[in-house]
Design goal:
Blueprint: H1 2-16, H2 25-31, H3 45-59, E1 63-69, E2 73-76, H4 81-87, H5 96-110, E3 112-122, E4 125-134, E5 139-144, E6 154-160, E7 167-171, E8 175-179, H6 192-195, H7 197-215, E9 221-226, H8 232-246, E10 262-267, H9 276-291, H10 306-336, E11 342-346, H11 356-368, H12 374-380
Antiparallel strand pairs: 1-2, 1-11, 3-4, 3-8, 5-6, 6-7, 9-10
């Protein structure tokens, strides 16, 4: 009962926020006398790399708020309380970049990403004060088909605070919910690790095997041959002795003494015979393919060139990132700007930036052909607006298509008329 009470007290103190709250899973297992080894998929290098690429890509894309104006089309909206949360500070603790990377990490690792919208309702209206992340493994979506919490058919989110163990229930209009593309009911997403778990764990086992091989000094296993009988005690002593001489990188290349009558026989097992590295590379490409990450993004440049890598980056945007970008834009627009004509849009061009010469050539061409004003072009270069730079310019030699050829008709101004 003493051990049970000690465990109970530790968990209680952890939930109450005492200093033991920061005890890690490894420390807690060691305190119980249990050998612990973290089995997280994030310890597999390809899985971690794919997660890093996806979340950092989402984190570095700037988000802007536009407004549909009659007669003017879609223009940049004036800053308001909500747009400042998206572009300056979602809450008092984190930046927009960290907010987006964390939300994307939860979406990919758990299949769903959640954030609570903190609102205050008063006579003056509804004011949004902050957007707070919720760890996905502490959130449970509830479909209310009986109207227990209010209206029938509404979705609620139950959140258990990992720090104090308190329960909270939020209506779906107050929760941003993004999910993976793999969903069978449309309400919750399925994480990639659930679909290709065997491949991820196989790659992790191969990584652990290489780690153990390095720890053993890259020496092959040995069989100690002896003609005769040995009792169990002598076997244990011999095994411990030769493990001391043969294992570890410090013993690599050293001479091993062998008693008379004994013989050490290496158990050669070559990694090349098992195509170890080929299989490891194939597993890495499978994991990257499941995430939509391109080979050059996991440092596989075997079939890549400079032009090929640039096309892979464009393919990554089109094939991989357009779906989560569209989902984030739709969710942010609906949950943050419901009932208005404002929309949220990411600037995906920021991950397609070219060298400075190509960028200047593209901006100049767009200005000369009336697509950008001078001030819009200056914005791409982080330059201030100039007076008179908001007019569209066009080459004077251009004419409307319906007037093409009129200059050759009789009476047209051909430029050869006599004065």
């Amino acid at each position: 009962m003493g051990i049970f009470n000690s465990i109970k007290d530790t968990i209680t103190n952890w939930r109450r926020g005492s200093p033991t709250k920061g005890m890690s899973e490894e420390d807690f297992a060691e305190w119980l006398g249990i050998g612990y080894r973290n089995k997280s998929e994030l310890r597999e290098v390809t899985y971690y790399t794919c997660m890093k690429v996806l979340c950092e890509t989402m984190g570095k894309l700037p988000i802007k708020v536009y407004e549909d104006m009659p007669g003017r089309g879609r223009v940049r909206a004036e800053p308001d309380d909500v747009s400042r949360l998206l572009t300056v500070r979602p809450n008092s603790h984190i930046t927009p970049a960290i907010f987006m990377t964390t939300l994307e990490n939860n979406r990919n690792h758990y299949g769903n990403g959640y954030a609570w919208i903190q609102r205050n309702i008063s006579r003056a209206g509804i004011k949004t004060h902050g957007i707070w992340l919720m760890q996905s493994n502490y959130v449970t979506p509830i479909y209310d088909n009986r109207g227990i919490f209010g209206k029938i058919g509404r979705i609620y989110y139950q959140y258990t605070d990992p720090l104090d163990g308190e329960y909270y229930l939020f209506p779906e209009d107050d929760v941003i919910h993004v999910k993976t593309s793999m969903s069978m009911d449309g309400y919750t997403g399925i994480p990639v690790r659930d679909m290709i778990g065997d491949t991820i764990y196989g790659a992790k086992d191969s990584q652990d095997y290489m780690s153990n091989l390095y720890k053993g000094g890259l020496t092959a296993a040995m069989a100690l041959q002896y003609v005769g009988e040995l009792d169990e005690g002598h076997l244990v002593k011999l095994r411990n002795k030769y493990e001391k001489y043969l294992s570890g990188p410090s013993n690599a290349g050293k001479i091993v003494p062998v008693p008379v009558g004994f013989q050490l026989q290496p158990l050669n097992y070559k990694l090349t015979d098992a195509q170890f590295f080929e299989l490891k590379k194939y597993s890495a490409l499978q994991i990257a393919g499941a995430f939509g990450v391109k080979p050059n993004q996991i440092n596989n440049y075997e079939k890549s060139s400079y032009a090929n890598s640039e096309m892979q980056q464009l393919s990554f945007l089109v094939d991989t990132m357009l779906f989560p970008l569209k989902q984030y834009e739709e969710e942010f627009t609906y949950k943050l700007y419901a009932g208005t004509n404002k929309v949220c849009k990411f600037n995906e061009k920021s991950i397609l930036r070219t060298d400075s010469e190509s960028q200047m050539r593209q901006i100049t061409s767009a200005i000369q052909n009336g697509l950008y004003t001078i001030n819009e072009g200056r914005e791409f270069l982080d330059k201030e607006h100039k007076k008179g730079g908001d007019r569209l310019l066009m080459n004077g030699n251009f004419i409307p298509v319906e007037q093409a050829g009129q200059q050759y008709e009789k009476g047209g101004n051909s430029g050869n008329e006599e004065n």
